[in-house]
Amino acid sequence: MRCSLRLLGIAALLLPTLGVAGVETATPVLQRLDLTHHWVGYFSLAVMVAAYAAATFEEATELRKSKPMLLAATLIWFAIVFTYQQRGLDQLAVTAFKSNLQTYIELLLFIMVSMTYLNAMKDMQIFDALKVWLVSRHFSYRQLFWITGWLVFSISSIINGLTAGLLMGAVVVAVGKDSPRFVSLACINIVVATNAGGSFSPLGGISTLFVWQHGVLAFTEFFKLFIPCLVNFLIPAAAMHFAVPKDKPTIEAGEVHLPRGAKRIIFLFGVTIGLAVTFDMTLHLPAAAGMMAGLSLLQFFYYYLQKSTDSRIQKPSEFDLSLNSDEINSSILEAKRLEAIRLDIFEKVGRLEWDTLLFFYGAMMGIGGLGYIGYLDAISKIVYGQLSPTLANISIGLSSAFVDNGTLMFAVLTMHPDITQGQWLLLTLTLGIGGSLLAIGSAPGIGLLGQAKGQYTFSSHLKWFPVILLSYFASIGVHFLVNAQSF
């Protein structure tokens, strides 16, 4: 069902344009060819839909989703540049390709640094320590329901939603092993809270990062959505509160000792985020430039840790006294090797979700190609021309329950609709919280379906669909109320 719904969503996004544009007419300023009725247009549209369908059926085919999307982007731009080259306009198409590529590279560098820091914090057992602390407090199920909800609502505004959701999901699965009902309700709460928390910050998700990266909204303007997002989290949580068991779980708490440097890495991550914001708002450089500056700080800190750790490993007293000198030297070398791997920054980079990052390359370049062909201009005229901006943004937000919100946001940004700041905020809000409507509507939901398999399911989430839909429209109403001056 998930596959067919997502395919239906992307088809609905692209197919209505087939009868809109004329054949190969150049715009007066850019001389861009209208290829919507040319073989290139039909070919590119078919390739993109086929690639998205293949990515959607990834679990069934075991074909990584990045592969068909990369091929689709390559074929689409090859066809576009080949056609332009025949007319002596290849430089126009090449310039358009480079513009889309620059947008992707800025996104890639930003996410790369952010995820590298998260991998470093995982290796430092920072998230494990948080989980153990929560488990050891002996909270009741209802207290844990609210604590995990509030925590994930807060931290998802800084780190990606999937990581935040899986972190809190690990907590509820650990403490709720004897209460499937608690696990199910807590997971629903985590999905809603994660998507809501990630919608009022440019750092909270791909869609908000796109808007900030394109300069549509300034960094501080996103925080106007805090109250609407808070409403979106609280309404379902308050409704589910009475269904959560009142008793306390019986669990045994473990213990985690943070390695040397763990707290300083948290501090450096905060400094890195500050550099990204400063570079954007003060120097007017891409936020990715500030993130790369923060990566250099992490590299130098790891260098310091490695050198200072090497001197500690030299002490023979740390090893078994029954070993001879050769065995002690061998143990020292092995300890150094393992520590060098643990403190290798490029090992953290290598563990990024490269399949997802390459999938976004294919999606962004493919959608950029369809936009250059002329399809997205035609869609914009239909969606934002025949419908009011409010109705259009609400409808697009609802479709994010089926189609990836990052893909949808990039498509809208490529359309360049002429809408007010309030409408851009509305689109950001609806695309962020719309993924909470279904368990398959967002990365946190999909991740928790696997993490809490058999306890949190598609049908258990669907039971609370009416109240989540109510919170969707309630948050929209609150946005119009508290941000009326933005319209």
From TrEMBL:
Question: What is the recorded name of this protein?
Answer: Citrate transporter
Primary subcellular site in the record, as a coarse category: membrane
- InterPro entries registered for this protein in UniProt: Cit_transptr-like_dom, NhaD-like
Q: Where are the transmembrane segments?
A: 38-57, 69-86, 101-120, 144-175, 225-244, 287-305, 358-379, 391-412, 424-444, 464-482
- Tell me the GO BP annotations in alphabetical order: sodium ion transport
Pfam families (UniProt xref): CitMHS (PF03600)
Q: How does it sit in the membrane?
A: Multi-pass membrane protein
Q: Which organism is it from?
A: Methylobacter tundripaludum (strain ATCC BAA-1195 / DSM 17260 / SV96)
